[in-house]
Amino acid sequence: MSQNIYDRSEFFEGYSRLGRSVQGLDGAAEWPALRALLPELGGRRVVDLGCGFGWFCRHAREAGAASVLGLDLSENMLARARVDTADPAITYARADLETLNLPEGGFDFAYSSLTLHYVEALARLFGVVHRALAPGGAFLFSAEHPIFTAPSAPGWSVDPAGRKVWPVDGYLEEGPRRTDWLTKGVIKQHRSIGTYLNLLIAQGFGIAHVQEWGPSDAQIAEKPVLADERLRPAFLLVAARRN
Amino acid sequence: MSQNIYDRSEFFEGYSRLGRSVQGLDGAAEWPALRALLPELGGRRVVDLGCGFGWFCRHAREAGAASVLGLDLSENMLARARVDTADPAITYARADLETLNLPEGGFDFAYSSLTLHYVEALARLFGVVHRALAPGGAFLFSAEHPIFTAPSAPGWSVDPAGRKVWPVDGYLEEGPRRTDWLTKGVIKQHRSIGTYLNLLIAQGFGIAHVQEWGPSDAQIAEKPVLADERLRPAFLLVAARRN
Asked: What residues in B contact A228, CB-CB < 8 Å?
């Protein structure tokens, strides 16, 4: 059973106040990059692993998806997601990605936003997703970037020349990282980019695109605080295909 | 024309004293990992981009390669490589990887060790390599890892808790990095892992394996100073296939 931080009231209240929770996809700075990697969704059967408040599920339907299954561990998030739509082609269900099963060939596109760095049994999950996709199906996910998850003390520091730097250690020591984010003791799974990609390849996926996300010049002009996010990538975006 | 640091006497003398220059492949800590990613070489036509002293070219022939073409920009290195073998199936030639041309379909395997981070026109070179490989051909390379090349001040520092850390900045600012290594003003090209992989994919390669290299426990036991190399990866190893 996964750690269910989103159903802790302290975490859920903090998370609900984030830009991405209030404004939806447009409140997530990496959304334009993810959107650019989406396949054509018209008529497709979509599954969203870690759907949260359901923003992407509703987007997929607006983009013409035939059906969308949104999965999440958090009852709180699913409850709000259900309130926010009456679309009968969107189904929300509670699921633990550590033990998930999906119908074979039941989907054309699998999506996951900032969820997989919580999953311990990632090889298993990639296998489940691969089998759940019809041949030619696509898988797009974002996760916290390994440079972001690696450090024993994640946070900016200033070097002797006054430059802001991100102090990397432990990069090749994969495994749990305990951090305080909105609540104490959030457990994330650190793994290298190589591991993410090799696990996909081992399950039969072809790698289509790998993006280490940073804000565009236009995004920085609009919101200057984002400039730091070019010093080290916070997010890893991967597009893969079922061959 | 590329910067030809290997033909500066100061650099060449320093480089010639490194373990990997004196002991050959076994003097390079990442060699066991690279070797594990090699395809079967028996009967194959091999090209080595940045062959240096020719250690890999000779290895490929010992492993049964039908022919080996070793390419390097450095006259110094090619001169020593030529002295070290009389094998008529090994050819050494001077080449600038920025402007290289290779015969189409002329090779079954392309290899490059710690050279591509010097190459500016990498998309062009990946295209040349792709066309030079017969269908099903393989490409294996190592390069300095982007975490290693990114910083404006590359070098270990110590955090307030006394931990050794690698201060990352500039990760998403791709382009030249000027460093002092064996000689002053060595120019390297920093690019993200995503860029390396997407350039390969754009040229038609399939990604077969991505390894962010660190020493094994056995290597650290034998040479404890290597332990730091697990804090942040120094090398990126990529295996790709011509589809």
From this structure: none
In DSSP notation, B196-222 reads HHHHHHHTTEEEEEEEEE---HHHHHH
For residue A61, what is the enclosing H or E element? Answer: helix A55-62
| pLDDT the model gives residue B184 | 87
d(CA A99, CA A121): 8
DSSP state of B155: S
Q: Which chain A residues are closer than 8 Å to B206 by Cβ? A: 206-207
Q: Is B233 on the interface with A (CB under 8 A)?
A: yes
For residue A164, give the chain B residue with the closest CA.
B169
Condensed to tens digits (0 to 9), the pLDDT of residues A102-161 reads: 999 999 999 999 999 999 999 999 999 999 999 999 999 999 999 999 999 999 999 989
ipTM of this complex prediction, to 2 decimal places: 0.96
Q: What is the pLDDT of residues B34-90, one digit of tens each?
A: 999 999 999 999 999 999 999 999 999 999 999 999 999 999 999 999 999 999 999
Residue A206 in 3-state DSSP?
strand
CA–CA gap between residue A129 and residue A49 (Å, rounded): 10
Q: What is the CATH number of domain A5-242?
A: 3.40.50.150
pLDDT tens-digit readout, A168-195: 999 999 999 998 888 888 999 999 999 9
Q: What are the DSSP calls for B11-75, one per residue?
A: HHHHHHTSHHHHTGGGGSTTHHHHHHTPPP-TT-EEEEET-TTSHHHHHHHHTT-SEEEEEES-H
- Residue extents of the structural domains in chain B: 5-242
